[in-house]
Design goal:
Helix content is 49%, strand content 16%. The protein has an eight-stranded mixed sheet with strand order 7-5-6-4-1-2-3-8, sandwiched between helices. Helix 2 links the parallel strand 2 and strand 3. Helix 1 packs parallel to helix 2, helix 6 crosses helix 7 and helix 9 packs antiparallel against helix 10. 35% of the residues are buried.
Length: 314
Amino acid sequence: MKKYNLKLSIVIPVFNSKGCLGELVKRVDTVLGANVKSYEIIMVNDCSTDESWLRIEELSLIYKHLKGINLRKNFGQDNAIMAGLNYSQGDVIIIMDDDLQHDPEDIPKLIDGVEKGHDVCYAHFTSKKQSWPKNFGSWFNGKVANLILKKPKEIYLSPYKAVRKEVVDEIVKYDGPYPYIDGLIFRITRNITQVVAEHRKRLAGKGNYNIVRSVRVWLKLATNFSIFPLRIASFLGMFSAGIGFCMALYFVVMHYYGVDAPTGWPSLIVTLLFIGGIQLLTIGIVGEYVGRVFIQQSKGPQFIVKNVTKSEKE
């Protein structure tokens, strides 16, 4: 591994991964060691329900490069990353998961991608060791990003990435309660690349993925960075009105030719369900925007830090 004359920050959001943290820090320390001018590991505990924070405190006494940040409640992965970015001081910031599915051996590849002149370098996984629902969620999120963020189709929005300090400085200016890191990156820069990396099985414990988290990500992406859902609502409203007009015209013509309009509950119920469903969908989309505006104006916090570990240098 070549030597890097830069300061590096590793930001790791942590949630219920006590069994992975010791090996993760060990491997990062082994990979970077004397090959980076200086580096720091920032682990942000997102109010884990296991003993992850106690483990971070223990590790911070062993590894002088490690700083732990303990959030007062669970804010979500992107908010935890924002907390870590606010504390980061590196020239390049690596963002990675806490379960060792992101191999520390690939960190030099990400650094090289940035050193070649790019602002951001994503890890591209040719195969992923995760459940099919999570794979589907990643695929769907990528398709939404293609549409809303105008993301190049060949770029994979990996949670494992390297970001220049200048871009991070712009990211942390965002003070809304619903940050989405990849959306903020594409709002700031298009000078982005990716490198092939290895995706491994989770070292220990169970993954924290569920469908609710995916829906939250999609909503943040869709409503924080675009009015596209509102346009869909408008289209559905016009489509529903068009169907109603065509049905009315059809019944008038049939009545003119002496054919009585169909009667009975089936046609009435189908019509009501169709139009009612469209109305509820559009109200829900508008409500999502209004709710986010309200929370933004009420200054809901991105994160609240409960305590921070002290390194030997402090």
